[in-house]
Write a structure and sequence with these properties.
Length: 220
């Protein structure tokens, strides 16, 4: 135990493990961006990260676990950027939604690997799982933030959850198509469109619970 927690050159064992993990994740993203999922092998990742195989297994059981962790790491970074931008925006719902959209697109554009990861999320089963996990994570955060922003005017939790899932999954599809070049438009225009769609999602309360029309019921 003493060896596992020993400090070398002022850097603890835990900090060294974190650095090695980050290096492996960065290597995996580099290789994926350069040649696709098939290029992300344990041998190639360790060689790119300049680490021994044993350090790979210190963090990951196999390459599936590695790529899922890489996708989760990118998602967490993106959420942090979006939440920070939203909290720093003016206390106005439209301003906060716009700040979130700007931060999200800026995050994707800041590193080409992020866009490639989004585009390539259907190329392997593990990437599809990672994509679904990312959608759920982002949608949960978005739903919670929507309820917090709207307060008593917020729709039922199930409604905000479903609306957030629809908007997040659709937005990811749209951004992926934009990265592929299927929609020729500026980042500013795309950001404005996404902000408008996200803002529309906050209006579902009045649609679902209109006093004159009653509450919409699912057909059995």
């Amino acid at each position: 135990m003493a060896a596992a927690t020993r400090t070398y050159g002022g850097v603890s064992a835990e900090e060294r493990r974190a650095v090695r993990r980050a290096a492996l994740l960065e290597a995996a993203l580099d290789l994926f961006c350069e040649g696709g999922w098939n290029q992300v092998t344990k041998k190639a990742v360790c060689a790119r990260a300049r680490l021994n195989d044993r350090y790979f297994y210190e963090h990951f059981a196999d390459r599936d676990a590695l790529i899922e962790a890489a996708a989760a790491d990118v998602t967490a970074q993106g959420l942090e950027a979006v939440v920070t931008a939203t909290m720093q925006a003016e206390p106005d719902l439209a301003a906060q939604v716009n700040a979130a959209a700007v931060a999200a697109l800026d995050f994707v554009a800041a590193d080409p690997r992020r866009g490639q990861l989004l585009v390539g999320s259907y190329t392997a089963e593990v990437l599809q799982r990672a994509r679904q996990s990312s959608i759920r994570t982002i949608a949960n955060v978005m739903s919670a933030m929507t309820r917090d922003a709207l307060g008593e005017a917020a729709p039922a939790p199930l409604d905000t959850d479903m609306a957030a899932y629809t908007l997040v999954s659709g937005t990811m599809e749209l951004v992926a198509a934009w990265v592929r070049g299927e929609f020729i438009t500026s980042r500013e225009h795309l950001t404005a469109l996404i902000a408008a769609m996200l803002l529309s999602g906050t209006n579902i309360a009045s649609t679902l619970h209109n006093p004159e029309q009653g509450t919409i019921q699912m057909q059995k």
